[in-house]
From TrEMBL:
Residue span(s) of domain AMP-dependent synthetase/ligase: 126-512
GO cellular component: plastid
Domain called Acetyl-coenzyme A synthetase N-terminal: residue spans: 57-117
Entry protein name: acetate--CoA ligase
Organism this protein belongs to: Vicia faba (Broad bean)
PANTHER family per record: ACETYL-COENZYME A SYNTHETASE, ACETYL-COENZYME A SYNTHETASE 1
Domain (AMP-binding enzyme C-terminal): residue spans on this chain: 574-652
NCBIfam families found in the cross-reference section: Ac_CoA_lig_AcsA, PRK00174.1
Keywords: ATP-binding, Ligase, Nucleotide-binding
Record-level Gene Ontology MF annotations: acetate-CoA ligase activity; AMP binding; ATP binding
């Protein structure tokens, strides 16, 4: 019997087989309740799954760790390679004390990820299969693109880019909303070996220009505007001002290709710079629908994606071609138990890593049908997501805990009035999913029959690292369960010593995996310092984590100066530097506080320039400054006026105390005696709600 089997595999504690609620689960009452620790996939699900038992998982996992070269080579052979990789499947130096960090997979192998995403499937008979269903912001506005049509359009864009002089290795910035043109453009860049850098179209012009200045793209690709919910966002205006700022910093942009999104804004109303700006619809359709592929080394860069760290300057995470291709495709297949008949919808924007690996590359490499949604999840009402699920018969639905929690607030009836019977697998990403949100997702959205893949990973990791395999694992609400093939997680203590068994500490990884990032753009030293020096011999994730008695991993959030707001990563230093750029702000200290829907929200302590009074108007202005410099998603929820900040005698701000004040845990302030001016603490508490 399954439970005894799990026990014997040491996946369940011994004696679990006699726990009544577990037996109830086995018998089919698969409701996720408070008391119950494990939620099992149904036998029906497990029997059809790629990996259908913990035993099979352990077999494969063991092989992936004992023989990574053999394990990954076998998987890589399913892709098209113009030339096979060298005998040394991977090189790795993961230990800074032994030299520079140098990760390579399938070096010498010649391939192209766009070819593997599109041409390969068209040639294999999938020409008429739908690649993308596009659902517009407004009800009833939609479009469909087959794999054959995708190939045509990718080729047209690729030909255009080549024609304007974009070559292998050149950067291209993409600042587009969730139109089909976004993944099309990514694939077109990949086809010609250009390195795309997608900037989430919610970033401000300042953030965009910072990225333009850093990677000096040949072209910026955008749209005039987009409608999200009932709001129109004028993207082209943001791009114009970013390009102007970049020019002042010596980086000029000659071409701004602009998609005419007529439903949001007319051409006549779009600000235009003749000579530089070009309408997508005026040029792209004129190009041929075939375009030769640029064959690339597996280690040629595929894209750059900027992410936040603990300093004010975003990091350009670099992913390369071959390993990323093999890893995103494989993780997608197993973590979602993907089958060719599935319809897959991931609610992430392509501007984040989730949209790179699990809207574009992972699913398209598998020949999947992907739903893209342009709009807001609660527009025109809180049932929109389930309306989309029913409309396209979505079977795999991948989203973020923040969305789950926000929809939970509207009540079950927005969910239950839709059928959702097409759903088969649910997924969660971006932050730890709290058990109550997990249960609601499982019981209400998934009708207690769809396993949830809670996938832990990062921009840096390229793909899933710790994730359930839905047919194999008994799940625990709130745990990302166990490592993916080839991943060896290690929990270390403060000194970097690995701890065994049940424990908590810092989450590290012991060896390279194919999807790992290879460097930070233009700053390999920062790459080593940030990720490989804190605990020599390991990659350090920046996350805290515990492992329970059954070997399950529980992520507990960032341990560095990074805040996670609605699954978006924001550096405290970035927000602080935006605040102090305001002429009336002398100093700022930003912390994250727990937030019911967003996970964390931004709480900013600000000290004003001498003699400046604090006012409501100034508060609004400070918030606006952050919106303008970073983007609306980084706006602080709370500005706390701080005539003084708690500092040590050496001048270091004691964030620990600020965090306690921000979350009003005033009886847990701890020792304040080492502060230079202990009285500032009381002053801050008095001003807390003013
Ligand atoms: C950080 C990475 C990777 C996709 C989205 C975010 C947190 C992500 C989980 C999860 C607990 C999670 C971590 C991580 N995180 N997924 N399933 N459980 N925490 O990518 O912007 O690079 O952020 O998001 O703190 O370090 P990212």
């Amino acid at each position: 019997n399954y439970l005894r089997h799990l026990e014997s595999m040491k996946i369940l504690p011994s004696g679990a087989g006699t726990i009544p609620h577990l037996n109830a689960v086995i018998l089919g009452e698969n409701l996720a309740t408070e008391e119950e620790e494990f939620v099992l996939p149904s036998e029906e699900f497990a029997s059809q799954a790629h990996v259908h038992s913990p035993e099979q998982y352990l077999d494969m996992y063991k092989r992936s760790i004992e023989d990574p070269a053999g394990f990954w080579s076998q998987i890589a052979s399913d892709f098209y390679w113009k030339q096979k990789w060298s005998d040394q499947v991977y090189t790795e130096n993961f230990d800074v004390t032994k030299g520079n960090i140098n990760i390579q997979w399938f070096k010498g192998g010649i391939t192209n990820i766009c070819y593997n995403c599109v041409d390969r499937h068209v040639e294999a008979g999938l020409a008429d299969k739908v690649a993308f269903y596009w659902e517009g912001n407004e009800l009833g506005v939609d479009a469909t693109l087959t794999y054959a049509q995708l190939l045509d359009q990718v080729c047209q864009v690729a030909n255009y880019l080549r024609d304007i002089g974009v070559k292998k290795g050149d950067a291209v910035i993409i600042y587009l909303p969730m139109l089909m043109e976004l993944p099309i453009t990514m694939l077109a860049c990949a086809r010609i070996g250009a390195v795309h850098s997608v900037v989430f179209a919610g970033f401000s012009s300042e953030s965009l220009s910072q990225r333009i200045i850093d990677c000096k793209p040949k072209v910026v690709i955008t749209s005039n505007a987009v409608k999200r919910g009932s709001k129109v966002i004028y993207l082209k205006d943001i791009v114009d001002s970013a390009i102007n700022d970049s020019a002042k910093n010596g980086v000029s942009i000659d071409v701004c290709l602009t998609y005419d999104n007529t439903l949001a804004l007319t051409r006549e109303d779009t600000k235009w710079k003749e000579g530089r700006d070009i309408w997508w619809q005026d040029v792209i359709p004129q190009y041929p629908t075939t375009c030769p592929v640029e064959w690339l080394d597996a280690e040629d860069p595929l894209f750059l994606l900027y992410t936040s760290g603990s300093t004010g300057k975003p990091k350009g995470v670099v992913h390369t071609t071959g390993g990323y291709m093999v890893y995103t495709a494989t993780t997608f297949k197993y973590a979602f138990d993907y089958k060719p008949s599935d319809i897959y919808w991931c609610t992430a924007d392509c501007g984040w890593i989730t949209g790179h690996s699990y809207v574009t590359y992972g699913p398209i490499l598998n020949g999947a049908t992907v739903v893209l949604y342009e709009g807001a999840p609660n527009y025109p009402d809180a049932g929109r997501s389930w309306n989309i699920v029913d409309k396209y018969k979505v079977s795999i639905f991948y989203t973020a805990p923040t969305l789950v929690r926000s929809l939970m607030q509207y009540g079950d009836e927005h969910v239950t009035r839709y059928s959702r019977k097409s759903l088969r697998v649910l997924g969660s990403v971006g932050e730890p999913i709290n058990p109550s949100a997990w249960r609601w997702f499982y019981n209400v959205v998934g009708d207690s029959r769809c396993p949830i893949s809670d996938t832990w990973w990062q921009t840096e990791t390229g793909g899933f690292m710790i994730t359930p395999l839905p047919g194999a694992w008994p799940q625990k609400p709130g745990s990302a369960t166990c490592p993916f093939f080839g991943v060896e997680p290690v929990i270390v203590d403060e000194k970097g010593v690995a701890i065994e068994g049940e424990c908590s500490g810092y989450l590290c990884v012991k060896r390279s995996w194919p999807g790992a990032f290879r460097t930070l753009y233009g700053d390999h030293e920062r790459y080593e310092t940030t990720y490989f020096k804190p605990f020599a011999g390991y990659y350090f994730s920046g996350d805290g984590c515990s492992r329970d008695k059954d070997g399950y991993y529980w992520l507990t959030g960032r341990v560095d100066d990074v805040i996670n707001v609605s699954g978006h990563r924001i550096g405290t230093a970035e927000v602080e530097s935006a605040l102090v750029s305001h002429p009336k702000c002398a100093e700022a200290a930003v912390v994250g506080v727990e937030h019911e829907v967003k996970g964390q929200s931004i709480y900013a302590f600000v000290t004003l320039v001498d003699g400046v009074p604090y006012s409501e108007e100034l508060r609004k202005d400070l918030v606006l400054t952050v919106r303008k410099q970073i983007g609306a998603f980084a706006a602080p929820d709370k500005i706390h006026w701080a005539p003084g900040l708690p500092k040590t005698r050496s001048g270091k701000i004691m964030r620990r105390i600020l965090r306690k004040i921000a979350s009003r845990q005033l009886d847990e302030l701890g020792d304040t005696s080492t502060l230079a001016e202990p009285q500032v603490v009381n002053q801050l508490i008095e001003l807390a709600d003013s």
